[in-house]
């Protein structure tokens, strides 16, 4: 595919690296010459040091032949303008990153679609959804719902209390069990499971199940003693924190700790009345104690600095907080934080990239999520009549290596597949893909 990316900043550079690994034809336009030079040295990417909102530059970049144009500069107005130009020049699909939450409201999305902007990405909102999903289940690292929970994927850190450790999966996760194991992260290795694979203490395991069986999963992994989250403390009052506070369920009480006094005043004006905003440093142990860290079930660190967030979560854990969430944008720190057992990690670049990646696919794809911990994609495909995946039973499909069918939704009912399952046109099929180009998997559904 020919893909043109506008903006060599956090999301643009991350996305370019991600797509370059799959050998796509990538052109990156930006005024950030330092990042462009570094990327062009390390990856097979064509770079242009120029303004992406220039018609002349877009023509030179070959936008008229682009399958996808992605605008992710720090300026939402540049992004929107660039997408409008790219659409007029002939780009098949366009995506713009924005900061204004008004733009992602359903009625406004229709207006943007009519203008030729196919998708709007608000990274803060996408990250906030992941954070709130994690807080709703204190014992889970990651949660991903398909069709409002008809199927649910749960990423769970296994402790000694887990009852299914050190047993072959063929004995503990057979066709009669209400879950599948999609992947196992052990130290730095991602394991695509098979019948003889075993779960070990400290593994991060990804389960696929249905909403009704979530309590059963909680029991077998030994997490019933984890208390539900009612009191939440958030360090950092940035835009991601604002989105998260707005989305928290009513039964959760939240305190926001922010160092900047003027920002605190602003937060007091815009956040709901029962939100307590505290002016201070969330790494200050005496402040945390004074503000009730000992009776807090979840601590969320959303400062702009990854090291600060990691240290703050470690401090909270020392004070007995079981559920911690850290925003970690730096990839090196992300994997270090995993090794420190920080808890749930949020990376806005990866969240936004998942949303954009979905736009590359021609098949009917409802959702794509990139799991940074295991370097894998989870995608929800809908096969058309006569597509390859509907021609044979699952056991005879010869799926690409690293690919697992997690389950499917048919007539709003979640179904865990077995080897004898026959997939039908119109099913929503969840595919787990480790080190596999989704374009290869897509061919099964066309």
Structure description:
This protein is α/β, with parallel strands linked by helices and 446 residues long. It folds into three domains: 2-121, Rossmann fold, CATH 3.40.50; 127-133 and 227-350, Rossmann fold (3-Layer(aba) Sandwich); 357-443, Alpha-Beta Plaits, CATH 3.30.70. It is 31% helix and 26% strand. It contains 15 helices and 22 strands. It has a six-stranded parallel β-sheet with strand order 3-2-1-4-5-6, with helices on both faces. Strands 14-13-12-15-16-17 form a six-stranded parallel β-sheet, sandwiched between helices. β13 (253-258), α10 (261-270) and β14 (276-279) form a beta-alpha-beta unit. This is Trk system potassium uptake protein TrkA. One of its GO terms (molecular function) is potassium ion transmembrane transporter activity. It comes from Prevotella bivia DNF00320. Residues 141-223, 366-446 form the RCK C-terminal domain.
Q: Give the C-level CATH assignment of the largest domain.
A: Alpha Beta
Oligomer state equals single chain
| Count of distinct structural domains | 3
| Approximate shape | globular
Strand tally is: 22
How many helices?
15
Uncertain regions: pLDDT < 50 for 5+ in a row?
none
Rg is 22 Å
Annotation keywords:
alpha/beta, globular, 15 helices, Alpha-Beta Plaits, six-stranded parallel sheet, 22 strands, 31% helix, Rossmann fold, 446 residues, potassium transport, Trk system potassium uptake protein TrkA
